[in-house]
Amino acid sequence: MVCEELNEEPEAEPMKMNHSHGGGGIKMSHEPAANSKIVLTDSSKNKTIAITDGQQPDHHAVITTLNDGALIAWVREKNGRSEICYTNIKVN
After folding, report:
1. Cβ-contact 31, 11 below 8 angstroms
2. 51 secondary structure, DSSP code
3. Measured between alpha carbons, how far is 14 from 31 in angstroms, rounded to an integer?
């Protein structure tokens, strides 16, 4: 399983979101996410591996198997924008 672990407390107020439906798209505006790290957990071995260092707001991690391991992807917020990050890991 891959998930996020918060490194700091989120804002006390809920996210402020503004939506507009014009030109076929949705424009959203919200507060930045809290810093968190992406971790890979193996509950059968009681093992956790840090994928990111927790110094950035990383969230919404996903995982899929590959021939020799797994591909992990997540969303990182940076400079007021979002980007998709990923890594390939070998699984024993």
Report:
1. yes
2. S
3. 9
Query: Residues 28-72: pLDDT tens digits?
Result: 555 667 889 999 988 888 889 999 999 999 999 999 999 989 999
State the pLDDT at residue 44.
Answer: 86
Grade residue 80 by pLDDT with cuts at 50, 70 and 90.
Answer: confident
Q: Which amino acid is at 14?
A: P
Q: Token pair for residue 57?
A: 């707001």
Residue written as token pair 């959203």: 28
**Extended beta strands in the chain, E state:** 2-6, 20-22, 25-27, 36-42, 47-50, 58-66, 69-78, 81-90
Q: Provide the β-strand partners of residue 27.
A: 20
